[in-house]
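Entries read sequence, tokenised fold; example below:

***
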Amino acid sequence: MNVRQAPEFPQWPQYDTNEREGLIRALEQGQWWRMGGNEVDTFEREFAEFHGAPHALAVTNGTHALELALQCMGVGPGSEVIVPAFTFISSSQAAQRLGAVAVPVDVDPQTYSIDVAAAAAAVTPRTRVIMPVHMAGFLADMDALAKLSADTGVPLLQDAAHAHAARWQGKRVGELGSVAAFSFQNGKLMTAGEGGAVLFPDTEMYETAFLRHSCGRPRTDRRYMHQIAGSNLRLNEFSAAVLRAQLGRLEQQITTRQQSWAALSPLLEAIDGVVPQRGDARTDFPSHYMAMFRVPGIGEAGRNALVDRLVAAGVPAFAGFRAIYRTDAFWEMGAPDETPDQIAERCPHTEAISEDCVWLHHRVLLATEQDMHRTAETVADAVAAV
């Protein structure tokens, strides 16, 4: 009897001598925080240039990146922020922690990114920001969102935690004219364990953000002249040194993931009952933070059993995000005057995706083409067994 060989995947995070040399460089410069060292400043310039943005500000993590960006965009008590209902909880909690109301709207059933028509229907006089999430590195419909922003006067904040290096019709995230926030958490496409960054299209907002992320103090302050309210969201020099090395190999890694997804996606689609994520084709350089697929009709219990089978078979699989309004955390502060079931009525796609979606860690896509076939075979076996 032939025994099917299990797929093999690279470990994550990845590192080499560049990270080691960067850490030593940061160590030996004698200043380990951004106000005295050079690593954070240099990383910000490199990250901004890489993404086509005038300014980048590095911060402690991706959640803080969103929160800082929203604060600089005027979000606070009494305001509303439109967010996709299918996303990681940071997208909504960043607004809620500022005292704002997070308003969940439905997502597209194929791309899993924000439904622009649903976002348009949710705009009110209190709406301050619309926050698309570029799910799994496929950009949301930035053309339609830009028009919605122009028509309503409500600015966009791109939650680009999944979209490092991604491009929309040839334009990089920083060239799309809106603020964008990134995460460098341990599982992200480039990582220092934790960390985040915000891209700003204009100098005034960037300077405000710098003050707010550094306790309200100007760069050269020696007399504790705290100009505006802020917090300490400064990234340290060691993390920045690691991120500079991570940025250096990012594009090549994404190219490999794109080739692997081109092989894996049709293999998954050929499995009875499996529907891979279909990104908008105008994302002409997707970053593939996840390899996502749905099994419509499987139900949450069946989906969870499927994930367990994949993990047992050596595939790093995870359940799709729970709808944010189906979590206790969402209702702790800044929630709409609705019940979860009322929100669910206008978010049918989110309800379904939250129950039938599976995602595979992006390190799967760094494996060989043969491993893409082995991965698809493993998924097929697991689906058939549930």
